[in-house]
Amino acid sequence: MAADADKSAGAQRLAEAVAAGMYARDHAARALGIGLVAVGPGFAKMAMTVRADMVNGHDICHGGMVFTLADTAFAYACNSHNRVTVAQNCAITFIAAARRGDVLTATAEERHRTARTGLCDITVSDQAGKLIAVFRGHSQEIKGEVVPGAGDG
Amino acid sequence: MAADADKSAGAQRLAEAVAAGMYARDHAARALGIGLVAVGPGFAKMAMTVRADMVNGHDICHGGMVFTLADTAFAYACNSHNRVTVAQNCAITFIAAARRGDVLTATAEERHRTARTGLCDITVSDQAGKLIAVFRGHSQEIKGEVVPGAGDG
Amino acid sequence: MAADADKSAGAQRLAEAVAAGMYARDHAARALGIGLVAVGPGFAKMAMTVRADMVNGHDICHGGMVFTLADTAFAYACNSHNRVTVAQNCAITFIAAARRGDVLTATAEERHRTARTGLCDITVSDQAGKLIAVFRGHSQEIKGEVVPGAGDG
Amino acid sequence: MAADADKSAGAQRLAEAVAAGMYARDHAARALGIGLVAVGPGFAKMAMTVRADMVNGHDICHGGMVFTLADTAFAYACNSHNRVTVAQNCAITFIAAARRGDVLTATAEERHRTARTGLCDITVSDQAGKLIAVFRGHSQEIKGEVVPGAGDG
Question: What is the CATH number of domain B2-144?
Answer without folding.
Answer: 3.10.129.10
